[in-house]
Amino acid sequence: MLSVRVVGTARTLLNPTRLLTSRQCVSRGVICALECQSRSLSGKGTGHSILKLTPLEKDPELLHNGNIKNYCTAQVKVSCWNCKHALDQTPAFFCMLCKVVQPPAEGVSYFQIMDCDYTFALDTQKLQKRYLQLQRFLHPDNFSQKSGTEQEYSESQSALVNKAYKTLLKPLSRGLYMLELQGLRIEEGTDSGADSEFLMELMEINEALDAAPTPKEANKIGQETKGKLADLTEQIDAALRKGELQAAKALLAQMKYFANIEEKVKEKLSQFM
Questions:
Q1: Is there a single domain that holds both residue 141 and residue 212?
Q2: Distances (CA, A) of 23 to 27, 30, 60, 92, 193
Q3: Range of the domain at 248
Q4: Residue 98 in contact with residue 80, Cβ under 8 Å?
Q5: What crossing angle do the helices spanning 171-181 and 215-242 adopt, rounded to 10°?
Q6: pLDDT tens for residues 118-148?
Q7: Which of 117, 228, 234, 268 would you label with 79, given CA atoms 20 to 30 Å apart?
Q8: pTM (predicted TM-score)
Q9: Distance (Å, rounded) from C-alpha 210 to C-alpha 218?
Q10: Which residues of 140-161 are buried (b: 16+ CB within 10 A; e: fewer)?
Q11: How far apart are CA 87 and CA 92, in angstroms?
Q12: Are 98 and 204 part of one and the same domain?
């Protein structure tokens, strides 16, 4: 058996274009085995695994007897907790042999769970579709007549899918999560990274919103804020594509402020109702 050990920096591993995809590995007759204690590349230090989950809608054989059938992309030494059959995929939601739900895999990123490309500009429609598909099979209501272990694992899997979906759905939480995978975090309640001109702009916007006499005025501020968020989204995407993490971090800090203003606009409009 031939195995290839993936070695590289966090930045390299986090960029799927720098690595051979699983399809390329298979086409060359090479079995890609990722060797680490958590059975996949963790978000700390090494980053995002190259294992890719086949979309449910693209493989009719993925569904079998009402459960999700595993699609092998690489060999990983993980076994079913129930029948000890080798699981061929990470993450593995169900055992292909005995069909029981599996516990959440360690060290698997939200991008892997939701079968999304590791990119800031991901397809949110595909994300939502994936979410609905997973919850259809993993929801705890489906396991009310199963063993206590299966009920526990279904609850854990369903909760993890919910968290992954909510994190990746919005640009701000998605970008912050991508920075976390790189070991960067924006501290709460700190303005040290914002210049005085930017803080003054924010203060003026907040004051104008508080004093807005009509829904029309509040809506105007809301539309301007959406425009700023859209512009920041493009800048953050460009920075992350270039690997400029500090620039992305600074832009995400600005996005947090404008996202907060967007929520305040909604609150203001509710006061007029």
A1: no
A2: 6, 10, 18, 18, 43
A3: 196-271
A4: yes
A5: 30
A6: 999 999 999 999 999 999 999 999 999 999 9
A7: 117
A8: 0.69
A9: 9
A10: bebbeeeeeebbebbebbbebb
A11: 7
A12: no
